[in-house]
Amino acid sequence: MNEQDRWTDEEIVKALEKVKREVTARLQAKDDPGFPAEFSPAVQELDAIIRGIGGQHGDGRGLGVARAAPAAAGVARGGLTTADFAALRPHVVDLNQGFFTSGDGFTTSAVNVDQIFAGSLLTKVQQAHAAGQKVTLLFYAHGGLVDKDSGLQQAREQIDWWLRNGVYPIFFVWETGFLNTVEHLLWGVQQRSLTAGSREFVTDPALEALARAAGGPKIWGGMKRSAEVASQPQTAQQAEGGAHYVARKLCDLVKQFPGTLEIHALGHSAGAIFHAYFINAVLAIDRTVHFESLQLMAPAITVERFKALLLPLLTNKSIGGLAMYAMKEDLEKADNCATIYRKSLLYLIYYALEDQPRVDLLGLEESVWRDGQLKTFFGLDGTPHPHGEAIWSQTPPGGLSASRATSHGGFHSDQSTMESILQRVGNLAPNTPVFHASWQSDGGRGFQAQQPGLASRFAAAASGATSGVAVPAFLPGLTSARVMQAGNGRRRALCVGINAYGGANTLYGCVADAELWARTLRSLGFDVQMLVDANASYAGITTALQHLIAESAAGDVVVFQYAGHGTEIADPEGRAEIDQAIVPVDYDSGPLLIDKELNRMFSATPEGVNLTCFFDCCNSGDLDRLFIASGPVVRPRFIKLTPEQVAKYHQFASRRGIDPRSLTVARGELKDVSFAACQSNQSAYESNGQGDFTLRTTNLLRQGLPTLTNRQFCDQIVSAFGASPRQLPRLDGAFGLFGLPLLSPLAGGTPAAARPPANPSPAPAGDAVSLRLAQGLRQLAEILESGR
């Protein structure tokens, strides 16, 4: 790389801000009040790049993470409200790289921990102590597949469930962000193989070798180090870890109220590593403290570390017992990681992420069976009264030893697993009624399905650049960093998800749906642009969709996906039928995207372009009946407009010359295929914060792009809902496309010219970022100079 391409972050930001000012000025010069400059995709993408680079030091942003857009009124980071934050305070300790956090959003300080142990927990302990009773206290550490916002949402979902079942939970949200990093690592490895000339996905052994060479052990080692640092005491060289401070407060409470607390620990995946250090930290402060049980789900701790840190405590009864919930070997190998690696995360760690390959992990069935000491510990060799129990999924549901999870990330929301843990932690008698929760499901799902709907997850991946920097994907004149070829054309997609409507209309699963679709489509070679929350305005959605369609050419495959509120609008004069509408984030000021306007945009699709839409919507069996509805317990995805809001829309439509009567598109003019979540008289549901249709459809696609027609793929989706579905998906759109291959170039079209990748040769991440941005800035300058 030439020295002239090596720009510092400060130089890049200054240059981008200058370009943004000029782009904004040129757009404002158009004097179009219906299209403010800030809605321009060019300006939005430039903002995303600037935000992604501007915070390299001290706040966790840097080149790999873009800051979330400003939240709507009353909505805090990740779709959680300020009221949610208040509910989290007595139960959550937020850590970053082992230490307390500060800055925007939900944070934790030593004072916040003091408040946990002096608030409702202390009240419960005092009351129980006076009555001669006990308080069950559970410390929960999530896994490495969970970032901060997902960890907070997971805690928010579970707090009430634990409390109503007699357990006081304290969650360690320790901001691993490891899933994001792993996806980027695997995608980068995959891209290198494609750059080298192969158009096929590389095999797992090749991915393992490349992931190791690309620094996988260093990434995984850094996460393990964060778990260790969290529980380290203060030294002359290092500040006290946040979990160690919690350990001190816990020991003080135990000493003040002896015999009143029953303490348990629950860890998922890398949470086992976190607890290995936390429990030892507690016992190093006070050896008299006793942990009643340790519950581990799919533990990612090595057998060696388990034997060194936890086995002695289980043997000497400092920990009363261990229950481990893990998958049988065949299920581990049927799982996937980031939809690229075709086995579970544990196997990726086993083969590629530890310091040496093939390091045995406690959560792998084959590792346990290879170790004689573990076989004895779990009683697998017939030893009576073992110290621990291994529950291998899938088991029959119900009871103390049940798990139905079928993926590494599926344990924490699998009803059988969680209720088994509850029975052990709560010491419940068999058949004791328990309070069930909407976030639990039979069997759990892949980690993509289990993450709550929070916009900050995969913020870097959503930007469309391998390195995590947002390079404009569809801005005219710019070349995306990840253009892939689909046969003879290009594969491009627009994914839209909106949670941040504000107030009672706030949603939680729509951004998650969009992100899951984005990850799935990227795994199939699509170049994906995302619009979420504040960026998903009327102008943002329509402009991005129009660009996506207008810039397509014969041979291209294009996808549009939407998740958010829907609504219906009646013509005040009765001149037209009721229209269904997509609800942009700025709907309260008037803008709505009605079904007929959407269909008219689709009708502009160039000949030879395959346009496929995915709507996870209620009453969506006809594209002219677009409205998004509710999940069984989660919030409705439907807004009933007030008369004032209806009036605002008609004023907006009048200013823009939108007349529903003139927008009707005949069936024969349709040029798209639409997969609808249900029939026109049904509701579409969501579970665990994501749409049931989205989960099933993307799960089928993540298994690899099938050689099926659109109609056959719809039949597979229907089959995935089982024998007695509460919603029945259907195919809609242009009838003549139903028999054509799913997500494949249309036959007979003249292929679009292939665009070369922006940076075809592998380079260090920092160099690649600077080079790509330098190239992008120069192209932007050329666009501005030419007056385009």
Brief write-up:
With 788 residues, the protein is of the alpha/beta class. The longest helix is centred in the last third of the chain and has 22 residues, at 765-786.
Structure description:
The chain has 788 residues and is an alpha/beta fold. The protein has 26 helices and 20 strands. The strands form 4 sheets. The chain has an 8-stranded mixed beta sheet with strand order 2-1-4-3-5-6-7-8, with helices on both faces. Strand 5, helix 11 (271-285) and strand 6 form a beta-alpha-beta unit. The chain starts with 8 loop residues before the first helix and ends with a helix. The relative contact order is 0.09.
In what order do the strands lie side by side in the largest sheet?
A: 2-1-4-3-5-6-7-8
Q: What fraction strand? A: 5-15%
Main sheet characteristics = 8 strands, mixed
Are there runs of 5+ residues with pLDDT below 50, and where? Answer: 1-6, 30-41, 52-77, 194-201, 445-487, 621-635, 749-776, 778-788
Structural class label: alpha/beta
**N/C terminus separation:** 30 Å
Number of strands: 20
C-alpha-based Rg, rounded: 27 Å
Helical segment count: 26
Proportion of residues in helical segments: 25-40%
Which outline best applies? globular
Mean pLDDT across all amino acids? 75
